[in-house]
Design a protein that fits this description.
Layout (H helix, E strand, L loop, with lengths): L3 E5 L10 H17 L17 E7 L2 E12 L12 E10 L8 H13 L5 E4 L6 H11 L16 H5 L1
Parallel strand pairs: 4-5
Antiparallel strand pairs: 1-2, 2-3, 3-4
Length: 164
Amino acid sequence: MNAEIEKIAINKENALENAELLAELAALSREWAEEGVCPGYYANDAEEYFDKELYIARIEGKTVGYALGHIRVLEEKTSYNAVGEKAFELDELFVTKAFRGRGIASALFRFAENDVRNRVSVIGLTAATDNYKPLLRLYTDELGMRFNHALLVKRTDNTEKENA
């Protein structure tokens, strides 16, 4: 059974008519936060979906995942872009546990990519996870993104002493 993917535009003016969808998105976001695999992730409130590029995956009418991002003009030159280029920044890509492993995350990404393709020069994301191998496999192997850089951290046992 394939997921149906669609783009949804939510803003202050149409939030009431999208109240049911916003509740579903909030439940998915809470599920993600409760999984605890994405350091620093907190559940979204409704306004975080306003005026963004929002893509929904549904199976038999049930929302099972979403992709959320925004388009911006890049102000600094980096190894992968020039000043003034437009970029789509994927802020969140989530599929509920019961529906993982079915290609829904890839389908959401590809749908978003096709939607923004003629409006941006680059697609980027910053990912934080404690389960990085499947994440890298998804983005680099399946979706053709290039690994650009990483921030690796290791906590020391000195944390309590510094906070005292």
